[in-house]
Design goal:
Layout: H1 12-21, H2 27-56, E1 71-77, E2 80-87, H3 94-107, E3 109-110, E4 118-126, H4 129-142, H5 146-160, H6 166-171, H7 177-190, E5 214-217, H8 221-231, H9 242-257, H10 259-263, H11 268-281, H12 295-298, H13 303-317, H14 323-336, H15 340-349, H16 351-357, H17 364-367
Parallel strand pairs: 2-4, 4-5
Antiparallel strand pairs: 1-2, 1-3
Helix pairs in contact: 2-16, 5-7, 7-15, 9-13
GO molecular function: sulfotransferase activity
Membrane topology: Single-pass type II membrane protein
Subcellular location: Golgi apparatus membrane
Length: 384
Amino acid sequence: MGCAVTSACFSFRQVQGLFAAVGIKTREELAAEEEEDRVRRRFEERLATLQTACQRYANFKVFKRIIIKLTSLSYHTPDGNVTVEYCPIQKTASTTWRRLLKDIERDEITSPLSINQTEKIAFAFVREPYMRLLSAYTDKLFSPNPMFWNEFGKYIVRLFRKNPSQESLRCGHDITFAEFVKYIIHSQRTGMNRNGHFVPTHDHCYWCRREYQYIGHLETINEDMPFILKAIKSHINYTKDFDKLTIEGNAQMVFNHFISGVLRCMTLEDASRRLWKKWQVRGIISKTEQFPLKLEQTDNITVELFKDVAMEALSRSRNKPEIKEQKKEALREAFSSVPFLDVLKLQKLLSLDFEMFGFDSSPLEIFGETSDLDDSGFSYFKIH
C-alpha cells in the first residue's frame, strides 16, 4: 500500500536531500547561516572601531616601539589560493594559533603564489587588557618560571621593593601583583626592560599601518576561530581540549624543564601549589578543589602523578557554576592590592587598547566596590 508524498514517508536524511535538491534550506542550515552572519557583523564592527581610532590618532606619535613578528604562509586549496598573515600577541592564544598554522602548512599544498591569483587575509587576536596583564603575571611571575624570575623578577624586586630579602634579590620568585603593575607603568614610560607579554596590545602589530580583515577576541575564540578557519579556506577543524593541553604543558614545563631553577628558590610543594592556583585563576580547576597532595607526598611527586590528580580535578570542575566567575574574582582580588593611583596610571597607559578594540576601561571587577571580594577566606594568590 502506497503513501502520500509527505515527510512521514522519508527519513530525516532523505528529507534533507530533497530540500537540497530543490534549493530549500533546512531549519538547521538557516540557523547556522544566521549565526555566521552574527559573527561576521561582529568582526565588521571591530574593524570599524579600530579604523575610527586609527583615524583619530593618525597624526600623533602614540604608537612607538612596536613589536611585530608575522607568521605568513601561502597555499592552494580546492576553494582557491590563499595567503595568510597572522600577527601573534602573547597571552591571546598565540601558541595555539602558531601550532594550528603549522598544521595547515603541513597538510595543505603550500607554495609561492602570484598576487593576482591569491586572496590575502590578515588577522590577529586581542584580549581584555586588564585580564591579559593578569594572565601574563600569573603565567610568567607567579607560576614557577625561573627564566622570567631571573630576567624580570629580580629587576622588579630591585626597583620597587623596600628592604628586600637576600632570597628575593637572588631569585625574584615572589613578585606581588602590585609590584608587577608598578613595573608595567615604569617600563612603558621609560622603554626599559620591556617584553611582548607585558606591553599593551596597541604596541603590537602596526594596527594602523597594516590592513587586517579579522580581529578576533580571546573572549569569543570558540566562535571566532571556526569563522577565521573557514575564511582562510582551511580544512582543519580545531577540536582539541584547551584545558587538558594547558595542564599537561604546564606540568611538563615545571617538573621537567624548570625543575632545577625552581628548586633553587622554593620547595617542590610550593611550586606545585602555585601551579594549582594558576589553574584556578584561569578557571580551569574549581576553587573548591583543594590542593590534593599531603606534605609527605610532595617530596616524591612526579609529573605523571601531578597530571593525574589535576586531570581528576579538571573532570570534577567542568560545568561547575563557580568556574565561569573565577577569572573575574581573581582579577578583583589582584587589583584590590594595587594602590588606586597606580590603577589610574595603568588605565591611562592602556587607554588606546580600550579605544581601538572596544573594551571597557572601568570594569566593575576593578573599579567597583571592594566589598564584592570573596569573604570565604579563599585567595587565588596565597598558597598557604
